[in-house]
Amino acid sequence: MRSTAPVVASEIKPHKQLSTLQRFLQYLRPYRKEVPVALGLITLGATTQAIGPFFIGWSIDHLIQQGNLQGLLLLLAMLALLYIVGVWAIRGQILRVGSIMQRILGQLRQDVFDKIQSLPVSFFDRSEAGDLMSRLLNDVSTVNQAFGQTVAQMLGNLFSLVGIVIAMLCINLQLGLLSNLVVPLMIFTTGLFARWARARFRVTRETIGELSAKLEEDIGSVKEAQAFNRVQLNIDEFKALNAANRDANVQAVAITAAFLPSIDFLNTLATAGVLAYGGYLAVTGAATVGVITSFLLYVQQFFRPIQILSQFYTQAQSALAGLDRIFLLLDEPAELKDAADATTMPPMQGDVCFEAVEFGYTPSQLVLKQVNLHAQPGQMIALVGPTGAGKSTIINLILRFYDVSGGAVKIDGIDVRSVTQASLRRQIGIVLQDNLLFTGTVAENIAFGCPNATHAEIEAAAQLANVHEFVTSLPQGYATQLGERGAPLSQGQRQLVSIARAVLINPRILILDEATSSIDTRTEALVQAAIARLLKHRTSFVIAHRLSTVTQADQVLVIQQGQIAEQGTHAELVAKQGVYANLYALQLGADATPVAR
Questions:
Q1: Residue 221: predicted pLDDT
Q2: Quick one: DSSP state of residue 406?
Q3: Of 299, 295, 288, which is closest to residue 62 (Cα–Cα)?
Q4: In a 3-state reduction of DSSP, which class is residue 466?
Q5: SS3 of the chain: helix, strand, coil, percent, to 5
Q6: How many domains does the chain have?
Q7: pLDDT at 9
Q8: What local confidence, expressed as pLDDT, does residue 281 receive?
Q9: What is the C-alpha separation between 323 and 345, in angstroms, rounded?
Q10: What is the Rg, in whole angstroms, of the alpha carbon atoms belonging to the chain?
């Protein structure tokens, strides 16, 4: 069932808006040679927009009133040419800026995916997959809508606004100042609505993250929900989250709906001011009809970019809220880093040693306490004990999914913290109880850890894993496409494919976590035979709840409450009449007498 804890984004205070925007603009650095070209096109387009009304007003005073038809036709031709150049410049700026922004957003999306792939396992222990997907898809999509699709138009209107203001002040200083009296009111109104919108849009981004997490979890557990009669409860929980997201979006839209009419009112106010005072100037002869006409055209042009910029500003609030969440993820500390002087792990012999190892997922609670063990090359080490005793934690420390809190884990005498994680894990194979297969061909799934493997190598691994005969019976053989999580293969078939995957990388250390559970007896025989081949000449760690599978282990470690309670061979521990003997007798109903090896 989904945790009721809030998502990560809601637990951390978001970055300040300005710093978020500055950080986003750093993505422009690779395109600094293209930016001046885009700015040049934007300037050219804005200039053509700003010059037009001036020439129209000038033509009224100097051509139309004087009946200069030839001059008027010449001016119209010049204006037509001017606007053609303007249209070309605007088209160029949209293409150029749009291309730059899409590449930036592509890089941002890649950075998020790379970060998710590189984060330590501990991060995913406390995070929800659906929320992470929401950041990668929904939040980046929101940024794309605000910046990727409209930023060229926004920049063009910003430059046009500057050009219009300069033209208005040059034509008539008094009318220009009067028209700009509403600008402080606009700035105040925009700032006020922005604060409200920013808070609302941040809530929308967080609620869509929670909704995505719930959706991802419930879709993946439909079978369990139906089996445990939780369908209606899941529907009710989703309905509550959906309502919260709906309400957050309604509140955000309500703010936007109130903002735009406010800008329209200021537009009308400025137009009325120009008409009233401009009319007075025209009547008194202080201004010509052409000047007043130019000003009315400029006022309309003046508020059009302001309206567009204001609309973009409200869109940007949602985008910046999304960027907050994206940068919070990108800033997530890499708790498990390679040391600055980390070396490549040399070819392993398979000698594994735990020296007084202590570990806790939280500092206040240790899961492993003073664990000492030594696995010699080629030995099979069985880990048994109750759920939660620390068996999987031991495996995680060998793979260095976590770092020890105390002591050291050494392979061939080398502390695993002193080598790169990639070179360490490259030589360790793992077969889990519920192995995950991916959408793709059977061959691609076998070659998951060795994507450059040849078809002959893939087929050889499949034969060792007892899966070749089954694969060749499929309609397209190794080219057969599998669906999500390996559908339609059975659990046993997926297990055999995962064993072939481990065979292909030829690991020196092999980890088996209940690899034969949840499968039928016939398939278990195939899996056991494949595992027997896989274990030869390799150091192996086997987590087993079915003790019949570990009777041939070189060492059996009984883990209780984070410590090794007993250690020895199966026969030695049965003869000891201790914890293991009791477990063996209870599980198999056997007489706890020594068993010959």
A1: 67
A2: E
A3: 288
A4: coil
A5: 65, 10, 25
A6: 1
A7: 37
A8: 81
A9: 38
A10: 35
For residue range 33-86, list pLDDT tens digits in order: 888 888 888 888 888 877 888 888 888 877 787 777 888 888 888 888 988 998
Residue 54, in any domain of the structure: yes
pLDDT band at 13, cuts 50/70/90?
very low
CB 102 within 8 A of CB 151: no
Instruction: Find out whether the peptide bond into 488 is cis, omega within 30 degrees of 0.
Output: yes
Name residue, tokens 């949840």. 518
Where do the H-state alpha helices sit in 221-288? 222-227, 231-283
DSSP 409: E
pLDDT band at 149 (very low <50, low <70, confident <90, very high): low
In a domain, residue 320? The reply is yes
- Is residue 303 within a helix (H) or strand (E), and if so which, with residue range? helix 289-330
**Token pair recorded at residue 64:** 């139309």
Alpha-helical runs (H) found in 438-592? 442-446, 455-464, 468-472, 491-505, 521-535, 570-576, 579-588
Residue 131 has pLDDT above 80, yes or no: no
Predicted pLDDT of residue 16: 57
CA 21, CA 323: separation in Å to the nearest integer?
A: 8
Whether 481 is covered by a domain: the verdict is no
299: phi then psi, degrees, rounded to nearest 5: -60, -40
Q: What is the CATH number of the domain that holds 255?
A: 1.20.1560.10
Of 556, 557, 563, 553, nearest to 531 by C-alpha is 553
Pairing of strands 352-359, 440-441: unpaired
Using alpha carbons, list the distances in angstroms from residue 533 to 187, 443, 506, 528.
75, 20, 12, 9
Q: Which residues pair with 384 in a beta bridge?
A: 558
Q: How far apart are CA 466 and CA 523, in angstroms?
A: 10
Phi, psi torsion values for 533, nearest 5 degrees:
-65, -40
How would you write 575-586 as a 3-class SS string?
A: HHCCHHHHHHHH
Domain of 139 in residue numbering reads as 16-330
Question: What's the mean pLDDT when you consider all of the chain?
Answer: 80
Q: Is the dihedral of CA 148, 153, 159, 162 positive or negative?
A: negative
The gap between the terminal CA atoms of the chain, to the nearest Å, is 45
For 492-539, how does the pLDDT look when each residue is reduced to its tens digit (9 = 90+)?
788 888 888 888 888 889 888 876 555 556 666 777 777 777 778 889
**Is 375 within the bounds of a domain?**
no
